[in-house]
Amino acid sequence: MTTRFFSAGRTEIGKVRRLNEDAILVREDLGMWAVADGLGGHSAGDYASALIVERLSALRRDGSAYDFIEAIEDSLQQVNAELRAAAVSRRVDVIASTVVVLVHDKDFVLCGWVGDSRAYVYTDGGLQQLTSDHVHGVKSDETQFGRPARAQPGAGVLTRAIGAEDRLYLDWAVAGSRPGMQFLLCSDGINKELSDEELGLACRDANEPHECVARLFSLSLRRSARDNLSAVIVRLEEP
Known about the structure:
This protein is α+β, with helices and mostly antiparallel strands.
């Protein structure tokens, strides 16, 4: 690979919730990282996020990056079907989770997502959001999955999640792969507490990924920390 990478991740329950429904994946050997956020207010959000991370972690990377992306999509489609079946079996409305996945290749970085967990890239002194939240209306502490037409006016409605619909659709974005670039994956518990400016400053000022993650959590936990908190940092450097 033309670059090497260093990474770190952390997940915590926060200061309000009684259960951590987030899960993270750090697999430097696969060049893959992920954050999954089980839907709060629904059944078994922790089960949904843990299943996503478990299945992604079980993947192998033997072929091209495109083969690996296809394997990721196939795995998440299978998880989607299993969560749908589990909801029927448990007689609940939905068991679901968001996810954001980052995949490194020698020439580019690919980011796939479903829901409102985010990916950012810090490069050339600025922070840019790679993902676009699958949310209708205004996000809140209890943004729920549902149809926009059924929501209260202005309410935050998650329009896509793994386990929420029979057919799963992932969005993908591509970024460069250059030394000095830094990627941040996070559940919405982080970006509810910290502005994009604060996220960018943490990426700028930290000397290495573990330090950046520590700063993000220190800032978030000084505030309300109303939701579960999860973040993964991946930094690209010279070989």
